Every structure is written in structure tokens, then in C-alpha cells.
Amino acid sequence: MSPEPTFYAYPFDAAFSEAVRIGNTLYLSGHIGDDDNGNLADGFEAEVAQMIANVAASLARFDLGLDALISVRVMLTDMGQLECFNRLFAACFSDKPLPVCSAFGVTQLALNAAIEIECVARL
Amino acid sequence: MSPEPTFYAYPFDAAFSEAVRIGNTLYLSGHIGDDDNGNLADGFEAEVAQMIANVAASLARFDLGLDALISVRVMLTDMGQLECFNRLFAACFSDKPLPVCSAFGVTQLALNAAIEIECVARL
Amino acid sequence: MSPEPTFYAYPFDAAFSEAVRIGNTLYLSGHIGDDDNGNLADGFEAEVAQMIANVAASLARFDLGLDALISVRVMLTDMGQLECFNRLFAACFSDKPLPVCSAFGVTQLALNAAIEIECVARL
Name one GO cellular component term (chains A, B, C) (predicted). Predict the structure, then answer.
């Protein structure tokens, strides 16, 4: 595997890339629970489901699944929703090992999302 | 060293792993200043001391010390306490080189902790 | 390239290093828009310009330019200024590929800065 970084641009005009691959490590930009039109899903659980679907779609471009995640950072506008996220997220892994995680409360996110996740995965 | 990731689960039910090792890099989940019963230490300095002890305990599973840290991210609910953290943290390294760091104020942390640290270390 | 980490201390007393190099990966401490005397630039756009200049100066110690960045994390005290940052930041890359990014609102930053950026680069 080449040590050169490979950048994967978003299919729209953006100030950052969707993903960068360095050797076996894949860095993803932060994902929120919006659809292709930039509309947030309605309600926290729906946002989490859409956000996880967006992460899965990014990983799928590299033939990876969610079990390729090694590290995630979770930003919430209401830390009272962390347990709900944890439950929904862990359910995606069943028997597979979970990534490391840090989580913290933020004042605001893009599009006024309630949650954002930043991921590192392993090819 | 194998390029395969190795996941180290927490000894209790959790939505994430305690650590993931990829080659020579070790990613740790965020640590706060709580004891094995999930009780926070009393007061900021005690929280920092317990938090650093928790990081040291995670590193010790890999026969590493605090000097193995290469990058830390510090989240505080009161940035006025950053200098206190800096002083306590730097004192753990004496002559050894310090990791890189970013620090920022957050609205809330797990268990209403005053501080959380997310670490990357080198085996 | 040696797998041993190399730490680059700040030229002043600090609780962390300016940069750590591990193989081909370079981790930088968070940068804000302050000058060598610790004075913040006046106004958001000036802070961003100074902050980017500070990142560029760190990278230049390793003979790298901004295009070596692979991952950035942007912390803002006012998420309403994210688009302004995005515009100024993307303009530094012209045709070159952009790093991945996550951005979030924080309660406070060091020196009461309006923005901080944490970077990972590739040698």
C-alpha cells in the first residue's frame, strides 16, 4: 500500500475532503445526520440513524463496513442524549469489537445538528 | 508488529473499547477522573490526578508509561482551569518530551466531569 | 524514516510540544491566531489569517506547506463564522486537495481566541 495520501473530494463544492487515506489508515470528515439535500433527519434517533448511514456510505467507497472503525469522536449539543447514541451505535457492532471513543458537549454544530461524529478507520 | 488492529474491551459493558492498537500506534478512549465505581474525585485537582492515574493504568496494560503519549486533547468545562491542568500534567513528564495538545471549553462531559483527556500513544 | 517519535518543543516554556513526528505522520498542537507575544490578531478574519500563518510556520520547520495537511479539527466560539473560515481556508489550497475536517462550537478557547485549529500532516 502506498505511503502517499489519497484524497477523496466531496461530489459538491466543499472546503474539505470527504476522506483521506494514508497507508492503511482512513480519516473521514465529520458526519452529521443530513441527507443529500442537506436536510437534517427529524428527531435525535433519526439523526443518529442517518449519521451512521452517512458514515457507512463513506466507508463503503473503500469496501469497508462500520467494523473498520477504530476511533470515533462524538460531539453532542445535549450530553443527555449520549446514552441514546451509545445504545444505537453499539447495536451496529453486535459481536464485533468497538472503536475507542471520546464524547463531549458542544455549543453548536453545522446545520444546527444535534450530533456529529468524526471517524478514523482501518483498511 | 502486525498491521491488524487489536481492540481492548473495557472489563464492563460499554459502547466503545478502552484502547485500539494499530501497528505502533495506540488510541485510547477519553478518560475522566472517576474511580472504578464511576465516582468522580472531589475537586478539580483531584479529578486531574485521578484522570492521569486512569490514563497511566490504560497505558500500563501495554507496558507503557505516560512518556509514551504523543498527542492529547483536553476538554474542560471551565477554561479558567487550563493552567492548573497544564501545571499538573507537565509535572508528570519532568525531563521527558511532552505530547502535542489542543484544549477547548465544552458545555458538558460524561458524569459531569470537569475535564476529559483523549490520548494517542506510541508503542 | 525512523518509527521513533521525534518531539519538537516550543521555544518557550509550555506544557506540551509544538509538534511530534511519527514515521510519516506529523501531529501539531492546536494553533490560534496569536503573534509571538501572545497577542491575538484583531477581528475574526485577521485571527484566521494569523492562525493559518502559525500553522504554516510550524509546517515550514519540516519543509512542508499547507498542502501537507491531511486532517484538521476546527473549534469556534461562534459557529456563525464557520463559512468565513471555510472560505479563507479553502483559498489557501487552490487546486490542491483539501484535508478532512470536523468543526464544532466551543464555550471558550485559550487567550479567548475565536478559533483554534488542530492539524495532522503528512511528511
Answer: cytosol
